[in-house]
Amino acid sequence: MKPVSTWAAMLSLSLAMAGCVTINIYFPAAAAEKAADRIIDEVWQLKPDAATKEGAPSR
Amino acid sequence: MKTIWKMLFIVSLLSASLATAQGNLDVDTPAISAIKSSMSQRHAQLAPLYASGAVGLKSDGSLAVHDANAVPLAQRGKLNALVAAENNDRTALYREIATANGHPEWAGDIRNTFAQRWIDKAPGGWWVEGSRGWTRK
Amino acid sequence: MLDGSAGRIRLDQFAAAGRQWRAVYLDCRRLQLDEGRIQCADARVGGVPELAGARLNLDFSTKSRSGRLTAQFADDARLTATLAAHGALDLKFSHLPVALLARVWPAAAPWHPVGALSGRASFDGRRATVSATLESAGFSDASGSHAAEALAGDVRLSAVRQGDAWRWDMRAAWTAGGVFWDPVFVPSGVSLLAEGQVSGQEVTLFSSRLDAPGVGDITAKGRLDMADRKIIEAEVSVRRADLAVAVPQFVLPVVAPAQTERWQVAGWLDLDVRWLDGELHGVEVGLDQVGFAYLGQRFRVGPLSGHLPWHRDTPAQGHLQVDGLHWQKLDFAPFLLDMSVEQGRIKVDPARLPVLDGAIIIDRLTVAKTEDGWQGAGGFFMEPVSMRALTTALDLPEMVGTLSASIPGLIVTPRRAALDGALVIALFDGYVQATGLEVIEPFGLLPRLRADVVAEHLDMAQLTETFSFGAVSGFIDLALKDLQMAAWKPVRFDASVRSTPGDYRRRISQRAVEHITALGGPSASAAIQRSFLQFFNDFGYGEIGVGCRLASGVCQMEGLEGPGADASPFTIVRGGGIPALNVIGYNRRVNWDELIARVKAAIASDAAPIIK
Lengths: 59, 137, 612
Description:
The complex is a heterotrimer. Chain A is mainly alpha-helical. Helix content of chain A is about 65%, strand content about 0%. Chain A is rod-shaped, with a radius of gyration of 18 Å. Mean pLDDT of chain A is about 60; it is low at about 1-25 and about 50-59. Chain B has one domain (about 25-135). Chain B contains 4 helices and 4 strands. In chain B, helix 2 runs antiparallel to helix 3 and helix 3 (about 75-100) packs across helix 4. The longest helix of chain B is centred in the middle third of the chain and has 25 residues, at about 75-100. Chain B starts with a helix and ends with a strand. The relative contact order of chain B is 0.14. Chain C is about 10% helix and about 60% strand. In chain C, a hairpin with a 2-residue loop joins strand 13 (about 190-200) and strand 14. Chain C is elongated, with a radius of gyration of 41 Å. Residues about 605-610 of chain C have low confidence and may be disordered. Chain B: Keywords: Signal. Chain B: It comes from Denitromonas halophila.
């Protein structure tokens, strides 16, 4: 989810639900993906360049 | 009165989204490091098993025995233990990342994110589970 | 009459092994029919695709209803069946392919059986004997999770009819190969001796004895109802099973596959299991010199010996002699646990576990099965342990004092261990108390500790001397709220240290001031050494106060004034008396690892005298 679309979604949602005070923090999908990539690279001992080299022809 | 609530709500939402959309997830706690190093060590044993097709990546972020026939009979018990241990660590990893960032309820989303990334980053030749069953990358 | 020319024998219908074939015929190269005697030589079978390629010889007398059939299959497989006049059937077979079985018996097909079977079987209505040898046999399902390879073995079975029942005895040996039956791998070296009786749907086992590597000597007897697939009554006993072999091979793969590699087990086990009236009635476990270690040497138990019974209807008394219990570097002296075991619950009698110069007293302890798995609950307290002994055992700087604990409520589940009560250390003329103790993931990769710690009236003179941190006189109070530790390193806490209110001498040595300022970085301590302050040995102070809120590896500091903006200075030591000295901090955000490194450096520098 891009930040811009997140904001837009949240703004429209908050206007629609005025009066409700529950605060929803949405799952940060992009940050999670970045964190996942970092951890996977470490666990699989992939160097960033080695990862693209190995990953590219398979797709 | 109502407008004040509304404004408060918008402000809090915006600040929350700013914090989470721009920030990184904290993945540097001692617990996560311990799990990571346990998984890295195990990877040396798992790597040939991925390559031979004995184990494959499942779509739920875990690992499964895909073809036990690729492993000599006497080693198949060890294969199971490796897969179970890896899955234990993976579940703990997803849970720890969620708790470290103050949202234990994110564990499921984190699992899904990881599931996709494990499969995307897997080298060619490995077996992965998609919507139509097992395929070889 | 036919006399040696080719011919065909036709069978309209032929049934065997639950299957039917129609229009089966034998094409004989030489067929001879003579006075009720059929001789068919060098024949091929038609209509049974499974037997295509077999060459048959048949010699049968319809008058005496006796004869002989030999079948020669591909390779050197051969079967000879002889039917004697009085009805006795004798089968001889050599190198009969087991794969043939899969062709005639569809249920066996998915298992892809292979191998060669040789032996002899005879049956005469009153007596049956089988002796067979299996070679190079194996099977495998599609996924390979149930498979066997290179199997060899032999079996001898004989049965005699007695009225309606058959009395039998057998002897089997499995001499080579291995079987993997997910999740357990069993290697060869197994032998079985058994005798019993079959009567209708009831099978009685008079006696049996199984020998296999690692599992010791297993004997069993009993009665089984084959219709309901139920044990009516039975006794199974295991003598001297070698746990070092049996546990990693049979137990861990089933109960904790993920932790197979983390446990090391040794010792001997005796086991007796009894069924009565169709139900499990009692289990007796005997342990001899059993030891186990978890995750290397972090937690070691053993040797332990004892007897653990379980009876269906009545609580049973068991005992366990623990001759060794080691956790990190703490060694417990031998102790005895008495317990009562009943349905889903083990209750341990009060016990005293000596450790160092004190003891842990178990007041009550029960382990019970709940919906969330096994759960332990209990209460214990400690006979004071001297800190001198404890700090020596844990390789800490030697301290004087005592450690005691009173934990009335202890809860242990697989995910969490919580201690409701207090751990109290009388130390440095004051005390340190830990409450709300909790261990998260006690059996995980990285157990974490949580606690609230309070300390009052700690004598700074003793404290600074113990940790070689210069000399400070006076007393301090300490509060460490929400302390969380992982691998004995703090991850999060909210700490505050303050001078204890009261009237007492308050002096701080120049060395201690240097150390405190050194925590702020090397330039600060250099500044002091250059200033006039170096001419004084010690200074008076009014109050000491410092706080640190640790999160994500950063310590957020505060001084006597309490919290403030990141850039604002804060007072750690407020001067008083002559000469007075203030210590003021400027950096409120300090990296925790760096701070610890500086504390260690300060302590190390104290050991060596500084020559000016």
